[in-house]
Structure formats: structure tokens, C-alpha cells
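User: Here's a protein and a ligand (heme C). What would the complex look like?
Assistant: Let me lay out the input and then the predicted complex.
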Amino acid sequence: MPLTTTMVRRGWVLALPLALLVLGVSLSAEGVDVGEGASIFGAQCAACHQATGEGLPGVFPPLADHVHELIAAEGGRPYPILVVLYGLQGPITVNGNAYDSLMPPFGHLTDEEISDVLNYVMTAWGDAARLEEEFEPYAPAEVAAERDRALNAMEVHEFRSTLALD
Ligand code: HEC
């Protein structure tokens, strides 16, 4: 069978994602390397925040179309790291819905797993693109730097109240 242009093209279409997979690179639509972020989200976060990132109104807050506001707030960049490391407890309002619940800490995940999952959360539903400035992906070293704070879930809530959120 002669090798047609279509066959060669098809070959590339299949080979490129495979090559990225082999290299362990998983790029979001914005070109951010989210590593294992998608599967970590599926395993650790989706039970509450849902695979769509939309949460459950009044029970689990949405992350989709919301996390960009958290990091756009002045001083807000470390906040999502703190939530994942130490959990969150206390009343919050997100998109007009009130939540007063508890998110457990995920400090047992590695620095890289946490930066991967946050990069996934920031890009999976278009939040990075909603930022005024280009999104700078989280790095494992930024997560490592926040481990020294050793906060509890209520102190993370206090940190949140220092951010100018709607
Ligand atoms: C057991 C359910 C549960 C799981 C699992 C969970 N969360 Fe949460 N998450 C919550 C709840 C509940 C809140 C709000 C807590 C409150 O009311 O103070 C929250 C809040 C958040 C917030 C802060 C939202 C804001 O406006 O302050 C972020 C960011 C977040 N979660 C990310 C994640 C990520 C990433 C994961 C996976 C590593 C995850 N969550 C896993 C229940 C969960």
C-alpha cells in the first residue's frame, strides 16, 4: 500500500500526543504543563468539587470560573497552595452562594503533585485565560516554601479574609 500524504499526516497526529505522553508532558489549552494534574484532580478533588469544577451549590464551592479571582486578588497567589496544604474551615461566599464547611488538608501530596493539580485547576476551565496578566504556572518550590507556615484550616480562612474578594 503506498504511503499517502493523509496517512503520513495521520501518523503525526497520533505520534505527537504519544511523544508528549512518553516525555511525561501534559499540556493544557494554554500551553501550561500540568504534569499529573488531571489525574490527581480526579483522584483527590473531584469527589467534592466535581469533575466539571462546578462544585455543588451550598456544599462544595466551585473552582471553575472562580480560582482566577483568588490569585488575582493582591497577595492571593499563595492562597490556593495554603488551602491544599492545610485545608479550609470557615464561612465563605462564592458567586453569591454561602459555604461554611470544611475542606481537609492534602499536605501528604508532594510539592510537585500540588503544583501540578493547581496548574490543572487554573487551566482546565479557562481560569488562567481570565487573568489580566499571563498565568505563571505554580512551581513545586513555591509549594515547598509554604510548608514552613504550618497553618491550620481556620488560619487559612483568616488568610482568605485578608484578600479583597467580592
Ligand atoms: C471532602 C471534600 C473536598 C475535597 C476532596 C476537596 N475540597 Fe476543596 N473545598 C471543599 C470545601 C467544603 C471548601 C470550602 C470550605 C469552607 O466552607 O470554608 C473547599 C475550598 C477550596 C478552595 C478555596 C475556595 C475559596 O473560594 O476560598 C480551593 C482552591 C479548593 N477547595 C481546591 C481543592 C483542590 C485543588 C482539591 C484537591 C487537591 C480539593 N479542593 C479537594 C471541599 C473539598
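Summary: Residues 44-45, 47-49, 60-61, 63, 67, 70, 80, 83-84, 88-90, 92, 94, 99-101, 103-104, 106, 117, 121, 157, 160 surround heme C (CB under 6 Å).
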